[in-house]
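Two proteins follow. First one:
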Amino acid sequence: MDNPFQLINDAFQPEYRVNLSLQGLDGDIMLTLSNADGVVAKRMISAEQRNDPQRLKRLIQSVQFGIAIEQGHSALEMLTAMTDSGSLQLATLPAPMWNTGGHRVGRPATITGRVLTLPVR
């Protein structure tokens, strides 16, 4: 299995600073993602999640999904892009666009198969 810490770093860098800190003797770690504006996301990762490649992949996708929603992306667009061809893939989404009335205008996601790249507002 690949190093789980490296997988986490690769999934979020260079878009975010990644901080992993040990939270207890049971092996839980706290993932903190930040950028120039401050903390973007925090997630507790159990030893079981960290050591199971499938659970770790789902956790990374869950964090990416949460960040995208917070940044104004459509959940439906995200899920459609991530589940293309029946296999869970990650997408690169452009920043959402807004019309003059202040309403969001959707743009399609691009499948990359690697990470969800999110622009920093």
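Second one, unrelated to the first:
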Amino acid sequence: MKHILRVVNVLATVVIVLAFVVLLRTVFTPSGEIPTIMGYGFMRTLTGSMEPAIPVHSFIVVDTHGAQTGGTASGDGATSGDAGSDGAAAYKVGDIITFQSTDEALDGSLNTHRIVSVERAADGSAIYHTKGDANATEDADPVPAANVVGRVVFISAGLGVVVSLLTNPLLFFPLIVLPLVILLVLEIRRLARTTREVSDAEDEAALRDAIEKIREQKRAEERKQ
């Protein structure tokens, strides 16, 4: 039972620490840039232009390996956060991509829509035509290869809600910081108790050895007499 509780303790600590790292990475990422960890960007969608595939306020992960681009979330289908380009020619019809929009209505923000067709520019680079699944028409402006941020590789509506709650300063401390501090204090106390028990055991063993030596000396003296 103690072993199971210890495993649960460790897993809970790992989860809280990871959440803490992600939130800190998000908070301290400069405006206009996307928080990334190990080459993947993470963000929340702000509108329902990609429903039902991506419900509004979903948490999404975008493959950001490659050159970095930035943007500010706003407008239809826009996303909050940041990601990097993932090799512009690697995308195909049906992929959901995040890109830097040239639509004046979005003011250069990041947008996350599905590729509906691909064509080639005069220089041979790809140009993507995109559309929100919930929108009636394609996006007005095609997406040049250089504007592609990356391909969406993970979607979670539930995590979007969780992230939204945890990024609230009123909830961040009691739900993340406080449990982490409590777990750390408990772990330090456990380590201190274990150290004390080991020290006491060593002292007891040393005392037994000393007593045994004294007894041996007395037996040796008795034999001499």
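SUMMARY FIELD: The first strand starts at residue 36 and ends at 37. The first helix runs from residue 2 to 27.
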